[in-house]
Amino acid sequence: MAPTHDPQLLKGVLSLLLLRLLAERESYGYDIVQRLRALGLSDISEGSVYPALARLEREGRVQTRLVASRSGPARKYYRPTAAGTRALAEGTTSWLSLVAVVHPVLVRRPPDPPTSPEDT
Amino acid sequence: MATPHATLDRLRIERVVWTMDTRLQDLPRRSRIARRRELRDNLRAAAEDVGVGRAVDQLGDLRILAAGYLAAEYGELSRRPSWTAAAVTIFLVEAVMTLLDYATRAAFDAGITTTTPHATGTFHWTGVPYLISDGTFTYLDGTHTSDGGAWTPLVYVLMFAGAFTAGRMWRLISAWRRQRHQTPLAVAEAEKEKSGGRA
């Protein structure tokens, strides 16, 4: 089945989505994948979410804590740092301004296809 | 007691976890262990949800996942450390030095036995400047034993400096430094990892 969302487009905003979801509620890796799927990103790969979380952690935008789990070893929960919250605010502003420019263009009624002289 | 089915499921998860671990050899040890544990936990959570087979499938291509983790650690374009390149460099230096050692000893021996086929006595070999120290060849009726001729410290310096350079190991130093300045929560997590739990 073809993916319903362009992975390249998604890649650009995945960090923002992760920061936003984690700001709402701290989560562990698989939990956040499920939350993204529940939002409609049903084809999102865990293989793209886990490294994105690792990158956010390395950049100091999220911090982690281990929470004891009944099903096995302690579970690693992520939540945004102050830097992550700032990055989320800046990224959201930037995304919304981009959408404000791109969206009206893309939803315009497409022009009629050009006609060749033979058709007339 | 675990059922055979549960054991099989655990083995499938472990196979994925350790496959990933081998692909993440270039990460600093602590970071690799943390990734391994997290992946295992996420896979178990996913397996409870959708079954092991689907949980493993949902991870996608493990090579892509590993590349993602490496890019997360070192950046997309930066040259990453490579234990393989370092090992190959050490092996190459060993191989070249072994060949050089063999060739120069054989040449010295040929020089002696060509002029005196049934040589008897002790001969001093000067070795190879800077690389192989001098030695002594003791002949008895044309056959010899030898002492000395060890590789100099410079060879080992070259070997490890070459491995450090070829393997881009300075990247590991910066990663280790970064880990030393991690957030208090991450430090607590690392200490927890060190103090207990399974790897």
List keywords for this structure.
heterodimer; A: 120 residues; alpha+beta; Arc Repressor Mutant, subunit A; three-stranded antiparallel sheet; 4 helices; 56% helix; B: 199 residues; mainly alpha; 2 domains; 8 helices; 67% helix; 9% strand
Q: What would you say this structure looks like, in words?
A:
The complex is a heterodimer of chains A (120) and B (199). By secondary structure, chain A is α+β, with helices and mostly antiparallel strands. Chain A has a single domain, classed as Winged helix-like DNA-binding domain superfamily/Winged helix DNA-binding domain (Arc Repressor Mutant, subunit A, Orthogonal Bundle). Helices cover 56% and strands 16% of the residues of chain A. Chain A contains four helices and three strands, in the order H-E-H-H-E-E-H. In chain A, strands 1-3-2 form a three-stranded antiparallel sheet. In chain A, strand 2 and strand 3 (72-80) form a beta hairpin. The longest helix of chain A has 25 residues, at 82-106. Chain B has 199 residues and is mainly α. Chain B has two domains: 4-81 and 182-195, no CATH class; 84-156. Chain B has helices at 4-23, 29-50, 52-59, 62-74, 83-115, 153-166, 170-180, 184-195, and strands spanning 121-125, 135-140, 143-148. A three-stranded antiparallel sheet of chain B has the order 1-2-3, with helices on one face. The longest helix of chain B has 33 residues, at 83-115. The model of chain B is unreliable at 183-187 (pLDDT under 50).
